[in-house]
């Protein structure tokens, strides 16, 4: 196998900046935001649904609304796997170590500063958030998505009933809410049992909601496990729904892919390895896994060799972004290019003619990089003008 070529051993951003705390006001570390990041944040705040008066048990100051970041709520019964999902996806915890996680007793609020800022709230399974003592606006205001985790290895009837109660209460005040159901821990189930469980859960939820008069509820289902890539894939889909310019990004990636002969392309958030956009060809888990693993390789190599060596002399102008490709034993080529502080583009190329045209690939990826920053900054400018 040819050795991977790395144009510039400089670390692509390898660290999420987390502000983890359990109080309502989140402490954000000082970070320098890119205009793309700022524009997304701004846009997302602009799209936060308005809150009807019934939902508020107290008044919400305009400052609070302005400071709100899109929020992902992780809910479900006790021991369903919520904290494990948050730890594995956002804190790089090895799945086996989740065995030692203690039960959550207070809402865990995690501020994620990446290509866009958002929060992940991990709810204790036993919390009765629908009781009148809880302020629905505090919990569901500025909501990006409600992720409901069901333990598929356990009896799930209680979980389904509680989810339906939550949906029926919350949708009265926040009708546009995204409800994402993770049918979780499926690693322990046979293929057949997995499919049956999936169908049964979907059927129960939709039947009960229809019986309660809520037809076509916006509920999406995913089979997940922390022991494979499925939870990353599911989180990718959840996060993508929060990205206002997703279709533009997909069009750009499609155009890039067509021009360069890419079989599949993913735009990854480097640290979480959630992909925020991809081309619109069918999902290919094997490709996704390969690309995701390749990021680890490059990050590791970059971390090992990118430190400032006093005796190292630059040989001419250096390109700003990390770039690398590798050709595997089956002649598949993986190409990676860092786009900005948080994002990198990883493509799979199988067409032998396309592999020869590396100059073209580089040039097109750079054009894509400009367009990517343009997409974000343009919406930022528009938002600026309208305020
Ligand atoms: N087999 C399997 N076990 C999992 C998976 N995800 C989580 N677990 C295990 O499930 C147990 C409970 O996980 P937690 O993440 O603590 O569950 P939780 O929903 O946060 O629990 P509370 O904090 O009590 O609400 C742990 O022992 C995890 O290792 C999975 O995908 N597969």
UniProtKB/TrEMBL annotation:
<comment type="subunit">
    <text>Component of the GSE complex.</text>
</comment>
<dbReference type="GO" id="GO:1990131">
    <property type="term" value="C:Gtr1-Gtr2 GTPase complex"/>
</dbReference>
<keyword id="KW-0472">Membrane</keyword>
<dbReference type="GO" id="GO:0003924">
    <property type="term" value="F:GTPase activity"/>
</dbReference>
<dbReference type="InterPro" id="IPR027417">
    <property type="entry name" value="P-loop_NTPase"/>
</dbReference>
<keyword id="KW-0342">GTP-binding</keyword>
<dbReference type="InterPro" id="IPR006762">
    <property type="entry name" value="Gtr1_RagA"/>
</dbReference>
<dbReference type="GO" id="GO:0000329">
    <property type="term" value="C:fungal-type vacuole membrane"/>
</dbReference>
<dbReference type="Pfam" id="PF04670">
    <property type="entry name" value="Gtr1_RagA"/>
</dbReference>
<dbReference type="GO" id="GO:0005634">
    <property type="term" value="C:nucleus"/>
</dbReference>
<comment type="similarity">
    <text>Belongs to the GTR/RAG GTP-binding protein family.</text>
</comment>
<feature type="region of interest" description="Disordered">
    <location>
        <begin position="1"/>
        <end position="29"/>
    </location>
</feature>
<keyword id="KW-0378">Hydrolase</keyword>
<dbReference type="GO" id="GO:0005525">
    <property type="term" value="F:GTP binding"/>
</dbReference>
<dbReference type="GO" id="GO:0012505">
    <property type="term" value="C:endomembrane system"/>
</dbReference>
<dbReference type="GO" id="GO:0010507">
    <property type="term" value="P:negative regulation of autophagy"/>
</dbReference>
<dbReference type="GO" id="GO:0009267">
    <property type="term" value="P:cellular response to starvation"/>
</dbReference>
<comment type="function">
    <text>GTPase involved in activation of the TORC1 signaling pathway, which promotes growth and represses autophagy in nutrient-rich conditions.</text>
</comment>
<dbReference type="InterPro" id="IPR039400">
    <property type="entry name" value="RagC/D"/>
</dbReference>
<keyword id="KW-0547">Nucleotide-binding</keyword>
<dbReference type="GO" id="GO:1904263">
    <property type="term" value="P:positive regulation of TORC1 signaling"/>
</dbReference>
<protein>
    <recommendedName>
        <fullName>GTP-binding protein</fullName>
    </recommendedName>
</protein>
């Amino acid at each position: 196998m040819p050795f991977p070529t790395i144009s510039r051993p400089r670390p692509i951003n390898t660290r999420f900046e987390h502000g983890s705390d359990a109080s309502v006001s989140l402490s954000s570390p000082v970070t320098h935001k890119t205009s793309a990041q700022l524009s997304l944040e701004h846009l997302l705040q602009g799209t936060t649904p308005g809150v009807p008066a019934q939902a508020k048990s107290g008044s919400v100051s305009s400052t609070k609304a302005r400071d709100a970041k899109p929020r992902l709520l992780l809910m479900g019964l006790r021991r369903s796997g919520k904290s494990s999902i948050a730890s594995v996806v956002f804190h790089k915890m090895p799945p086996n170590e989740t065995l030692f996680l203690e039960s959550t007793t207070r809402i865990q609020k995690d501020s994620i500063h990446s290509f866009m800022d958002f929060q992940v709230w991990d709810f204790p399974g036993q919390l009765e958030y629908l009781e009148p003592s809880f302020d629905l606006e505090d919990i569901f205001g500025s909501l990006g998505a409600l992720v409901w985790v069901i333990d598929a290895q356990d009896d799930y009837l209680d979980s389904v009933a509680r989810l339906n109660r939550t949906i029926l209460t919350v949708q009265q005040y926040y009708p546009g809410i995204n409800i994402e159901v993770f049918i979780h821990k499926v690693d322990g189930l046979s293929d057949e049992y997995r499919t049956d469980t999936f169908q049964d859960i979907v059927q129960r939820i939709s039947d009960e909601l229809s019986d309660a008069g809520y037809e076509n509820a916006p509920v999406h289902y995913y089979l997940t496990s922390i022991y494979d890539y499925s939870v990353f894939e599911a989180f990718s889909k959840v996060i993508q729904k929060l990205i206002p310019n997703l279709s533009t990004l997909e069009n750009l990636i499609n155009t890039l892919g067509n021009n360069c002969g890419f079989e599949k392309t993913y735009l990854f958030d480097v640290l979480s390895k959630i992909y925020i956009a991809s081309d619109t060809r069918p999902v290919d888990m094997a490709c996704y896994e390969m690309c995701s693993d390749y990021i680890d390789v490059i990050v590791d190599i970059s971390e090992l060799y990118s430190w400032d060596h006093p005796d190292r002399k630059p040989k001419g102008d250096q390109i700003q972004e990390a770039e690398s490709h590798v050709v595997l034993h089956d002649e598949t080529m993986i190409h990676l290019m860092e786009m900005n502080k948080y994002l990198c583009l990883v493509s799979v190329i199988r067409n032998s003619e396309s592999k020869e045209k590396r100059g073209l690939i580089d040039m097109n990826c750079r054009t894509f990089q400009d367009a990517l920053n343009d997409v974000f900054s343009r919406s930022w400018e528009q938002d600026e003008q309208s305020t």
